[in-house]
Design goal:
The complex is a heterodimer. By secondary structure, chain A is an alpha/beta fold. Chain A folds into 2 domains: about 5-245, Rossmann fold (3-Layer(aba) Sandwich), CATH 3.40.50.300; about 265-360 and about 430-510, Rossmann fold. Chain B is mostly helical. Chain B has a domain at about 35-160 and about 240-390. Chain B has helices at about 1-10, 10-30, 40-65, 75-90, 95-120, 125-145, 155, 180-205, 210-235, 240-260, 260-270, 275-280, 285-310, 320-330, 340-360, 365-390, 395-414. The longest helix of chain B has 27 residues, at about 180-205. Chain B is globular. Chain B starts with a helix and ends with a helix.
Chain lengths: ~525, ~425
C-alpha cells in the first residue's frame, strides 16, 4: 500500500447555526488522483478550505496530518509552504498581467530582495507552460487567452510552487469538452510522470470515473464512503447512489394537494442573452406553466441558467435581448422594470440574501417594507407607527426570532435572515413567487419552518416556482419538477414519477459526450 | 422596553458624537477663558459655518447613495457667486430675480453632473473632479480674474444681518434683543406640543409609545438647549437671518431622510444597491436626484457666502468640499453609504466649526489648525471602524496564532 500523503481525521466545522462538516475523515495516498463528490452544500468546498488554511486552525476541530506531520495552518501561505496548492472554481488570475507575472505572483523570482528578475521569471514560466502543454508566450496578457488555457496557467502556477498536493475545485465547470479533456489528461500525466497527487472536486461524474483512483463521497457534511477503482466497481450509478441515498422521513412537512385549475403564469418561448457577452444565450427557448396553489420546482446545477431565467422574468432584472411572452391569469404581461413586476404581483426571492436580498445594516422593519412602501405611506410620507405594526405582524406570523423589529438584520442568524427575506416579499402581496434556493445556508430546523411557510402560501392560492439544486428538497416540496440544463428545460416530472436517480441520470445523459467518456 | 434598548444601541454612534462635541466645546470654553460661548462669538460661529452646514447636508445625500462624494461644490459656490456678482453688480439686474436665476444655474449644473454619474455610469469622483476644474475655470472666465464688490443692500438682506427687534422697549432679563428670546421660547413650545400631540395620537391608535419620563427628559433637554441658544443670541444683536435658511434646510432634509419614501430609498440604495434595485427602488433616478440636489444646495451656499464676503471673488469656496465631506464623516456617515443622519452631520459640522473658531481665538496658527482638523477627521473615523472590529473580535485569530506558535516551538524542542 502506498504511503499516506494526507490524512484528515474527524474534521468538524461549524458556521453560526449550521454544522457544515461533521466528523469527516479522508485519506489521500501519495501519487493518486482522489476525487471528492457530493451535492451542492455537502461540504466539499468547506473541507478544502479547512485543508488549505482559509479557515485557520482553531476555527474547526479535528487533525490534519500531511506527510505524517501534524499540521496547524493559519493561512493559505502555511499550507502552500508544504506544497498544498488549491485552485478555486473562480480563477484567481489578474487579467491585465502577463501569464508569467501571474504564475509567480506572490512568489516572485528575485534578483536582490525586492527586485524582480524578469529573465528568470519568463524562462521558468516557459518551462512550466511546456509541462502543462500550453504553447503561449509567457508575456501574453491573461485576458487575451481562452478560459481553458487560463485553467492550464493556474496549474502551471501551482507547479511553479513545487506542488505536492494539487487541489482542483470544479476545474472544468466553465470549460468545453475538448478543454476539459485536456485538463484531465494533464492531471493523469502529472501523476504518471511527476508523481503529483491531486484532489479533484467535481460535479461531472463521468470525469470522476474517467480519471480518479479513489472517490470519497460526502453527504450533508459527513463522509459516506470511499470507493476504490481497483477494488470496487465504480460506475456513475454507483456514485449517484452514494451521493443521494438518504432517508427522506420527516424532513418535509406534509403537503396537502392545493393545486387549482387556473394557470397563474405561463411563460412561452423565453430566450435571454448574457448581459455583457450579448452573443451568449443563457436561457434558450424556455416554456412552462405554473398553476395557482402549485409549487413547481426547477432543478438545475449552478450555471444551468435557472437564476438568469428567474431574474429575466422578474421585470427584466437580468439579461439582454430578452424575447418571449409572459401570460398572467390569461392576460399578456409586459414588464419593463422591477417596479412593474412587483406591482403586477410577480416577485423573485434571491438566492443570495446577503448580496442582493437584504440590507444588513438596516432594521428588520425597514427591510420588510421596502418593496411596497406605498402600503405604509401616504403621499410620500411614511407612517412609521403603521410600519412598525405591520412589520411586527410579519415577525410573529413567520416566527422571526428577534427582540424587536428595530433589530439590524445583520445581527440575525442565517435562518432568521432568510425569514426576513421571505417576510419582505410576502408583505408585497404577490400572486406568483419565484423562490431561488430559499433554504441555502440555513439549518435543518429553520428549513422545516420555511417549507411550512411555502406550503401555507400555496394553500392561499399563490403560485410558487421553487428553484433549488438540492434534489431531496425539490422532491419533497414540489408538485411538479422541471429539470434545467444549459439554459433549456430538458425534462418535466410529476411528483409521483420523479426519483433522484431519474433526475440525475437525465442531466448526466444531457451532458454526456461533453467529455466523450 | 427591548425595543428601546435596540434603538439606543442602533444610535449609539450619534450619542458618542454628541458627547464628543460637548467635550470639545467645554475644553475650548476653558482654554479660551470663556470667550467661545460669549454671545458675540456664538453669533460669529453661526455666520462662519452656515454655508458649511448647507453644503454638508447636500453632501450627506450623495454619501448616503453609496459613499459617493462631490468634489465640485467649492467651485460651484464660486461660480454661483460670480454669476450673482456679474448679474447684479456689473449688469445692474434686479437682485431677487438674479438670485432665482443663480439657483436655476445651480440646478442646471446638478443635471449635468447627475447625468454623467447616474446615467453614463462614470464614477462620481471623476465627474466631480472634472466639475471642480471646469466650474473654477468658468468662474475665472466670468469674473475675468477680478473681484466684484460691493453688493446692493437688497441682495445682502437675505442672509446677512439680524432679524429686527420687534419689541425694542421690552428688555426681558436685561437682554438687548428680547425678540430673539421670545422666538426661542416659541420654538421650544412648538417642539414640546408636537411631541405631546404625537404621543397622545399614538396612544389612541394603540401603537407602541415612549416612556413618559423619557419623553419629558427629551423635551426638557431640547427646550433648554434651544432657549439657551436664542437667549445668548439675544444678548448680542439677535437672531442671524442666515439661521432661518439653515434651519429650514436642516428641518426639511431631516424630514425627507427620516419620514419619506424617497429618504428610505436613499438609505436602501446605499445599504445594498443590488437589493434595493431588486426591491423596486429606482436606483439611477435616485443617484441623479442626489447630485441635482447637491448642486442646488451648493448654489444656495454660494449666494450666502457671496453675501457674507459682500463680493464675488474668483477664489471663493476653495476647499469647501473638504469641510463638507469631513463634517459628514465626523458626523457618523459611512464611507460606503447607507448610514448617516442630518443630525449627525450638523454635529460634525459644529465640531469642525468649534475647532476652527476655538483655535483661532487661542491664536493657534492656521497651519497647526489644519493638522488638528485632519487628525480629528482620521480619529473620528478610525474610532468608528476600530470599534466595529473589536465587536467582531477580529484580532483573536492573531492572538491564537501566536499562542499556537509557542506550542509548536515547545513541541519541537521536546
Amino acid at each position: 500500500m502506498a504511503k499516506k500523503l494526507l490524512e484528515m481525521r474527524s474534521i468538524t466545522k461549524e458556521f453560526p447555526g449550521v454544522k457544515a462538516l461533521k466528523n469527516v475523515n479522508i485519506t489521500v495516498e501519495e501519487g493518486e488522483i482522489h476525487a471528492i463528490v457530493g451535492e451542492n452544500g455537502a461540504g466539499k468546498s468547506t473541507l478544502m478550505n479547512v485543508l488549505s488554511g482559509v479557515y485557520p486552525y482553531g476555527s474547526y476541530t479535528g487533525d490534519i496530518y500531511f506527510d505524517g506531520q501534524l499540521c496547524r495552518f493559519h493561512s493559505i501561505k502555511d499550507s502552500e509552504r508544504l506544497g498544498i496548492v488549491i485552485i478555486h472554481q473562480e480563477l484567481a488570475l489578474v487579467p491585465y498581467l502577463s501569464i508569467g507575472e501571474n504564475m509567480f505572483l506572490g512568489n516572485e523570482r528575485q534578483r536582490r530582495r525586492g527586485i524582480v528578475n524578469w529573465d528568470e521569471t519568463f524562462q521558468e514560466a516557459e518551462k512550466h507552460l511546456r509541462v502543462v502543454g500550453l504553447d503561449e508566450n509567457p508575456r501574453t496578457l491573461v485576458k487575451d487567452i481562452s478560459v481553458g488555457k487560463q485553467q492550464l496557467v493556474e496549474i502551471a502556477k501551482a507547479l511553479a510552487k513545487d506542488v505536492r498536493l494539487l487541489i482542483l475545485d470544479e476545474p472544468t465547470s466553465s470549460l468545453n469538452e475538448a478543454d476539459s479533456r485536456k485538463v484531465l489528461d494533464l492531471l493523469l500525466s502529472l501523476k504518471r510522470e511527476k508523481g503529483i497527487t491531486s484532489i479533484l472536486i467535481s460535479h461531472k461524474l463521468n470525469e470522476v470515473a474517467y480519471c480518479a483512483d479513489r472517490i470519497t463521497i460526502l453527504r450533508d457534511g459527513s463522509t459516506v464512503e470511499t470507493l476504490d477503482k481497483n477494488k470496487d466497481e465504480v460506475t456513475e450509478e454507483r456514485i449517484i447512489r452514494g451521493m443521494v441515498g438518504r432517508e427522506m422521513t420527516e424532513r418535509y412537512p406534509h403537503r396537502p394537494k392545493t393545486i387549482r385549475k387556473e394557470v397563474a403564469l405561463e411563460v412561452r418561448d423565453w430566450t435571454v442573452y448574457h448581459e455583457i457577452y450579448t452573443e451568449r444565450r443563457v436561457v434558450n427557448n424556455v416554456s412552462f406553466k405554473l398553476h395557482k396553489g402549485e409549487v413547481a420546482g426547477i432543478y438545475g446545477l449552478m450555471g444551468s441558467g435557472r437564476t438568469e431565467l428567474a431574474l429575466s422574468i422578474f421585470g427584466r432584472a437580468y439579461g439582454s435581448r430578452i424575447s418571449g411572452t409572459l401570460i398572467k391569469d390569461g392576460q399578456i404581461l409586459e414588464l419593463h422594470s422591477v417596479p412593474d413586476a412587483i406591482a403586477a404581483g410577480l416577485i423573485y426571492v434571491t438566492e443570495d440574501r446577503k448580496d442582493s436580498g437584504l440590507i444588513l445594516g438596516s432594521s428588520i422593519m425597514h427591510n420588510i417594507t421596502l418593496p411596497r412602501m406605498e402600503f405604509v405611506s401616504q403621499r410620500g410620507r411614511i407612517d412609521r407607527d403603521l410600519e412598525r405594526k405591520t412589520a411586527n405582524e410579519y415577525r410573529e406570523t413567520l416566527g422571526i426570532k428577534a427582540p424587536s423589529v428595530e433589530q439590524y438584520v445583520g445581527n440575525l442568524s442565517g435562518g432568521n435572515q432568510q425569514k426576513v427575506l421571505l417576510a419582505k416579499w410576502i408583505y408585497s402581496k404577490p400572486d406568483i413567487l419565484i423562490l431561488d434556493e430559499p433554504t441555502r445556508g440555513v439549518d435543518v430546523g429553520a428549513k422545516y419552518e420555511i417549507y411550512q411557510i411555502i406550503n401555507d402560501l400555496a394553500e392561499q392560492g399563490k403560485a410558487i416556482l421553487f428553484i433549488s439544486s438540492e434534489l431531496p428538497e425539490i422532491l419533497g416540496m414540489c408538485d411538479r419538477i422541471y429539470v434545467m440544463d444549459s439554459g433549456r428545460i430538458i425534462a418535466e416530472f410529476a411528483q409521483s414519477e420523479a426519483t433522484q436517480e431519474g433526475i440525475m441520470n437525465c442531466i448526466m445523459q444531457q451532458s454526456k459526450g461533453e467529455i466523450g467518456a | 422596553m427591548s425595543s428601546l434598548w435596540t434603538t439606543i444601541r442602533n444610535n449609539l454612534k450619534q450619542y458618542m458624537i454628541l458627547l464628543a462635541l460637548l467635550v470639545i466645546i467645554l475644553a475650548f470654553q476653558v482654554m479660551t477663558n470663556g470667550t467661545l460661548l460669549k454671545p458675540m462669538n456664538v453669533s460669529n460661529l453661526i455666520f462662519q459655518n452656515a454655508y458649511v452646514v448647507i453644503l454638508a447636508v447636500g453632501m450627506l445625500m450623495c454619501i448616503l447613495t453609496g459613499g459617493n462624494i462631490d468634489l465640485s461644490v467649492g467651485s460651484v459656490v464660486a461660480l454661483v457667486g460670480a454669476c450673482a456678482g456679474t448679474f447684479i453688480i456689473s449688469w445692474g439686474w434686479n437682485s431677487h430675480l438674479s438670485i432665482l436665476l443663480c439657483l436655476l444655474i445651480g440646478l442646471a449644473i446638478g443635471v449635468w453632473q447627475g447625468f454623467w454619474i447616474a446615467y453614463a455610469r462614470i464614477p462620481a469622483f471623476i465627474v466631480t473632479l472634472a466639475g471642480m476644474l471646469v466650474f473654477r475655470g468658468l468662474t475665472l472666465i466670468v469674473l475675468g480674474g477680478l473681484t466684484l464688490a460691493p453688493f446692493p443692500a437688497d441682495f445682502l438682506a437675505y442672509s446677512t444681518g439680524y432679524i429686527p427687534d420687534l419689541f425694542p422697549e421690552l428688555q426681558l432679563f436685561g437682554l438687548r434683543n428680547s425678540t430673539s428670546f421670545l422666538i426661542g421660547v416659541l420654538l421650544a413650545a412648538i417642539f414640546c406640543v408636537s411631541q405631546i400631540r404625537g404621543w397622545i395620537w399614538r396612544k389612541k391608535k394603540q401603537y407602541e409609545v415612549e416612556n413618559i419620563a423619557l419623553l419629558s427628559l427629551k423635551m426638557v433637554v431640547v427646550s433648554a438647549a434651544v432657549i439657551w441658544l436664542f437667549y445668548t443670541l439675544g444678548a448680542y444683536r439677535g437672531v442671524p437671518k442666515v439661521l432661518i435658511t439653515v434651519g429650514i434646510i436642516l428641518i426639511a432634509y431631516n424630514y425627507i431622510t427620516q419620514q419619506t419614501v424617497i429618504g428610505r430609498h436613499l438609505y436602501a440604495l446605499g445599504g445594498n444597491e443590488k437589493a434595493a434595485r431588486l426591491s423596486g427602488v429606482k436606483t439611477r433616478k435616485l443617484l441623479f436626484l442626489a447630485y441635482v440636489n447637491m448642486a442646488f444646495l451648493a448654489s444656495i451656499a454660494g449666494i450666502v457666502f457671496a453675501a457674507r464676503l459682500n463680493s464675488a471673488s474668483p477664489q471663493a469656496g476653495q476647499s469647501f468640499e473638504m469641510d463638507a465631506i469631513a463634517s459628514c464623516f465626523i458626523g457618523g456617515a459611512s464611507a460606503y453609504g447607507g448610514i448617516g443622519t442630518v443630525g449627525g452631520t450638523l454635529i460634525g459640522a459644529m465640531i469642525m466649526g468649534v475647532l476652527n473658531n476655538g483655535m483661532s481665538i487661542m491664536g493657534i496658527s492656521s497651519n497647526v489648525q489644519q493638522v488638528v482638523k485632519g487628525l480629528v477627521l482620521l480619529g473620528a473615523v478610525a474610532f468608528d471602524v476600530l470599534g466595529k472590529q473589536r465587536i467582531q473580535l477580529d484580532f483573536l485569530p492573531f492572538l491564537r496564532r501566536r499562542e499556537a506558535h509557542q506550542h509548536e516551538s515547545i513541541k519541537t524542542e521536546a
